[in-house]
Specification:
Largest sheet: 8 strands, mixed
Keywords: Signal
InterPro entries: DUF6299
Distance between the termini: 28 Å
Pfam families: DUF6299
CATH topology: Immunoglobulin-like
Protein name: DUF6299 domain-containing protein
Number of strands: 8
Strand content: over 45%
Helix content: 10-25%
Shape: globular
Number of helices: 1
CATH architecture: Sandwich
Structural class: mainly beta
């Protein structure tokens, strides 16, 4: 499998993991750590969705990613839309993720997006060694307008 699709699949899985275990059990983000979602997402004719926004984080020691998911209609059904690497240097950065939601076809109009700024931190579990576990820096939920690209 080529590297890009494998990375997109891994980050999409991380987005779904974030949605499943979510920030409910995570410590609140520091006020200087944020992620936002732009008001409009793009929908290409081939079904590819592009979402974007900004992020800021300060204390990343492991790999940090911005993952995103989208739902339309049934809020319980979310589709991971890619993921991108993040740089935790205290500055505000732009993120943009693209992906296809499997066999599902999304339509232009109202949708709901969740973006998560997440770090994979090695944790010494004593059983398996340094198992990387998600550490959440910030999350954002926003209703967006999905428009033709």
């Amino acid at each position: 499998m080529p590297v890009r699709p494998a990375l997109a699949s891994a980050l999409g899985a991380a987005a779904l993991l974030c949605a499943a275990v979510g920030p409910a059990g995570a410590a609140p983000a520091a006020p200087s750590e944020t992620v936002t979602v732009d008001a409009t997402g793009k929908l290409a004719s081939d079904g590819t969705v592009t979402l974007s926004g900004t992020y800021r984080c300060t204390a990343g020691t492991g790999p940090v990613f911005v993952s995103s998911s989208i739902s339309q209609g049934d809020a319980r059904v979310r589709y991971g839309i890619g993921g991108s690497g993040a740089q935790c240097d205290g500055a505000e950065h732009h993120w943009k993720n693209s992906g296809k939601p499997g066999d599902e076809t999304l339509k232009t109009g109202k949708a709901h997006v969740q973006a998560t700024l997440m770090e994979l931190k090695p944790t010494d579990t004593g059983l398996i060694g340094n198992l990387p576990l998600p550490a959440f820096h910030a999350t954002a939920d926003r209703d967006v307008s999905l428009a033709k690209q």
